[in-house]
Specification:
about 475 residues, alpha+beta, Heat Shock Protein 90, 4 domains, 4-stranded mixed beta sheet, 22 strands
Length: about 475
């Protein structure tokens, strides 16, 4: 969080979306009441280590990690917050003292804290006990978030329960003590907000979020006929396309397919961050694709698109605009379009805290192409990232980076990279090729098979001691 933004928050004080907690001897019980009220209203931010009058008392340095760990454990406990949530606190240093910042997004669920429902009124957490008020809260959330719509005739056999072991493992990989680890399938789905009740109609069952995340393909087509993500490569044949992938499956596997398309057609330029190699291609594509998958308006007939061109790539998806105009890290206010789906993606490690995606796109796009991206909030949400194959953030890295010398028009970018590398390294193994061009071994094997079929590559000699022979195109 930028220091000037934190200074502004402290100067304004507590509001309907900001709460300060002293956190002297540990996290106070009413902190979780605030979490509940923020979830039930419009979301908000909690700052631990700050007095009600905005003065900083801080948290001891050796205690801060335990504060974060205990908080995550408590909000993942259904006896404390129900349905459970997964939040990611961050430790900040301000004026030499540590504070913990917790961003709580709005939820399409109605949550309770120790079996009591709370709502946010001005800067207070208020108990909600009247049946009419609780019903109105359910109805309000139902009207705002279409992912909440109940489909009473969707049964377990309509969902792909076979994905749940992978979902559990992904969640545990994200957070070792994740509560989903020991839950039954039914408990997991309820905890994730995928099964619920419509207080306006009395319908109970799986909702649209469940169908989109885990539904069989034919069930998704029945519920959302226009749902589709169209991935297109258009660099040579500008009137049509050079490659195309139509994705119509559940969101989890859609993400994997679309990331594969990005890996196939984008350079993975060498880049170090804190002495660790970061995949700029993966970081940028991840943020673009996660956004277009989880923040779209699924009831719209607008088809989502992921397009890679020579000088840019972009995504488009149907949207319920909030602010309109161009979004930047300075003016961006997190506003999830599908909180249940977004929370599910965060739990399994495919998405981060709301707002981090915008910051990452601006950061990594500058390093990937030297130019800033554009994020346009309208009825169609657009993310545009400039591309420049010849740009390198690090000049020294650029000297050692592979450049496309062959420019074979009927080959993909990665196939050309393999041809160029093998001209100088005919004895290279497939593992060495993958490392050199920044691709996975599976992708390299697929590209080599394609090059053989095109008559551009042959293998001579034995498997261990053989060599690659690059052929000239006819």
């Amino acid at each position: 969080m930028p220091i000037n933004k934190l200074q502004n928050i402290l100067s304004v004080g507590e509001t309907v979306a900001v709460e300060f907690k002293r956190c002297g001897g540990g996290i106070s019980a009413d902190t979780y009441e605030t979490v509940c009220s923020f979830l039930n209203r419009y979301g908000g931010d909690i700052y631990l280590g700050v007095e009600d009058d905005s003065s900083i008392v801080g948290i001891p340095q050796n205690a801060a990690p335990d504060v974060v760990k205990n908080f995550i454990k408590m909000v993942g406990n259904p006896e404390v917050i129900s349905p459970t949530v997964y939040l990611s606190p961050e430790i900040l240093e301000y004026e030499g003292k540590l504070i913990v910042h917790i961003h709580v997004p709005p939820s399409s669920e109605v949550h309770s804290c120790k079996k009591v429902i709370y709502d946010r009124v001005d800067d207070a957490d208020v108990k909600v006990t009247a049946t009419g008020q609780i019903a109105a809260m359910y109805i309000r959330k139902q009207n705002v978030f279409t992912e909440k719509k109940i489909y009473p005739y969707v049964q377990e056999e309509h969902l792909r329960f076979g994905l749940l072991p992978r979902v559990r493992q992904m969640a545990v990989n994200r957070y070792l003590g994740h509560p989903w680890k020991n839950m039954s399938d039914t408990e997991l789905l309820k905890s994730a907000g995928l099964f619920g009740e419509d207080m306006a109609t009395g319908d109970r069952g799986y909702n649209l979020a469940a169908v989109m995340l885990l539904g069989q393909d034919d069930v998704i087509r029945s519920v959302v006929p226009a749902y589709r993500t169209d991935a297109i490569l258009r660099k040579v044949n500008l009137d049509r396309y050079d490659d195309r992938l139509i994705v119509e499956t559940n969101l989890i596997e859609s993400y994997e397919l679309l990331m594969g398309f990005a890996e196939k057609h984008l350079w993975d330029k060498f880049y170090l961050e804190n002495d660790a190699r970061i995949s700029l291609r993966g970081a940028i594509a991840r943020e673009m694709l996660v956004n277009t998958l989880i923040h779209r308006e699924f009831t719209s007939s607008q088809i989502a698109r992921f397009v890679i061109e020579k000088d840019k790539m972009y995504t488009e998806n149907a949207n319920r605009a909030v602010t309109g105009g161009v979004i930047t890290p300075e003016n961006f206010e997190p506003n999830p379009k599908n909180p249940i789906i977004a929370s599910f993606f965060r739990n399994i490690g495919l998405a981060d805290e709301l707002g981090s995606g915008v910051r990452n796109l601006y950061k990594y796009s500058q390093r990937y192409s030297g130019k800033a991206p554009e994020l346009i909030d309208g009825d169609v949400f657009r993310i545009i990232v400039p591309l420049d194959d010849n740009y390198s953030f690090d000049v020294e890295t650029d000297k050692g980076q592979l450049k496309g010398k062959s420019c074979t028009l009927n080959c993909t970018l990665s196939e050309n990279a393999i041809i160029d590398f093998l001209r100088d390294n005919p004895n290279a193994t497939q593992n060495a090729i993958a490392t050199a061009i920044g691709r996975s071994l599976r992708s390299v094997k697929s590209d080599i098979a394609a090059l053989k079929n095109k008559g551009l590559l042959e293998r001579e000699g034995a498997k261990r001691n053989g060599r690659w022979v690059v052929k000239q195109p006819d």
